[in-house]
Amino acid sequence: MTAFFLTLPFWLALSAPGPTAPEPAVVAAPAETATTPEPAVQAPDPAPVDPEADAAAPAPTEAEVAPEAAVQAPETAAETDPAEAPEMSETTAAFPAPDTTWTLSEINGAPFEDTATLTFPAAGTIAGKAPCNSYNGQIDGTPEAFTLAPLAMTRMACPNLDKEKAFAESLGKMTAAEITPERLILTGPDGAQMLFLPSK
Fold it and tell me: Structurally, what CATH architecture does the domain formed by 92-198 represent?
């Protein structure tokens, strides 16, 4: 009996289960979030090509293709100093030559019973001799249409001043000229006319 009581606790100790190790905690993996795929970006369809429109379109000009390539040629004409160039209109030089003296023959179809002359000594000027006094003046325009500035005349006293007055008044009204080698006809308003012939 003594032996039994000595061995029973030992047996119980042997048969008793040992301490149970705790089971490791199971950590749940995070659930995967469903990702919605982004829609693919579709490139726009190319515009349809109309072969007829391409054929009808004008070809680009040379200036449009390469405007920077256009090179302006340098001006070769020499510039004239305005101080050296005589002042004259485009056709003022078409007036009679300065070495020709014209003698008045008729005023409005009637013979002029005295002597008066007219010259064009330089571009834009006239000069001459009335029945008594010498005169000069400025002419502006062309033979087809011109204007005369008031004449500058000397002031000599002469017996035929009436003819001189008629000459100066008629000359101041003239506005156009018809020029040929044989005659010079000045015309004005209302059919006014002065006929000059080249002096011999």
Answer: Beta Barrel (2.40)
pLDDT, tens digit (0-9, with 9 covering 90-100), for 54-77:
555 555 555 454 444 444 544 444
User: Residue 125: what are its φ and ψ, rounded to 5°?
Assistant: -135, 155
Q: Give the contacts of 151 (CB within 8 A, at least 6 positions apart).
A: 135, 136, 137, 168, 171, 172
E strand spans, the chain: 102-107, 110-111, 117-118, 125-129, 134-142, 145-148, 152-153, 176-179, 184-187, 193-198
Q: How far is CA 193 from the centre of its chain?
A: 43
Domain assignments of the chain as residue spans, ordered by start: 92-198
Question: Is the pLDDT at 109 greater than 70, yes or no?
Answer: yes
pTM of structure: 0.54
Q: Single out the residue of 196, 130, 197, 117 nearest to residue 163, CA to CA.
A: 130
